[in-house]
UniProtKB/TrEMBL annotation:
Species of provenance: Dyella caseinilytica
Keyword Transport included in the entry's annotation: no
Coiled coil: none
Signal peptide: 1-21
Protein name: TlpA family protein disulfide reductase
Domain Thioredoxin: 20-155
Lineage: Bacteria, Pseudomonadati, Pseudomonadota, Gammaproteobacteria, Lysobacterales
Keyword Signal: yes
Keyword terms, alphabetized: Cytochrome c-type biogenesis, Disulfide bond, Redox-active center, Signal
Length: 155
């Protein structure tokens, strides 16, 4: 009887759980950056794009930001967009970026309004590498390095 009750409870939980659509292989991303400019991932076709989810309070995120900036600066066929996945006031994120400057645009996405074509990060940092064809080439959970990016891109 206990096994039956457990099975019934498990089935009920599965039915009650929200159904999430799989992330598209060619995601779209249209956001306004913290400096007020529009950003459209589709306009980056032909280049590799690093889509990096981070937060001001995330120590591994802060550590990897200079590495991503350097990688983008030294690889002309690579660009990046930072997604501050953070409920912090935008002015505080801008102040953070004054202390930790990056070479790529940053947009804020709050946790209550996630991006529709990207899976919500289960931890930060989370990065998607988008290929020149606009398709997801690699998904990273945790900090990325120049070496991991080079390996994924094939440089």
């Amino acid at each position: 009887m206990k096994l039956f009750a457990s099975s019934l409870l498990l089935a009920a939980c599965a039915l009650a759980a929200p159904a999430f659509a799989a992330m598209p292989t060619q995601p779209s991303l249209k956001v306004t950056t913290l400096d007020g400019k529009p950003y459209d991932l589709a306009s980056q076709r032909g280049r590799w794009v690093i889509v990096n989810f981070w937060a001001t309070w995330c120590a591994p995120c802060i550590k990897e930001l200079p590495d991503i900036s350097h990688f983008v600066a030294t690889h002309p066929n690579v660009t990046a967009i930072g997604i501050a996945y953070d409920d912090t006031d935008p002015a505080d994120i801008r102040a953070f970026l004054q202390k930790h400057p990056v070479t790529f645009p940053v947009a804020q996405v709050t946790m209550d309004k996630p991006l529709k074509d990207f899976d919500e990060p289960v931890g930060l940092p989370t990065t998607w590498l988008i290929g020149p064809d606009g398709k997801v080439a690699k998904h990273f959970t945790g900090p990325i390095t120049s070496a991991s990016l080079s390996a994924a891109i094939g440089h």
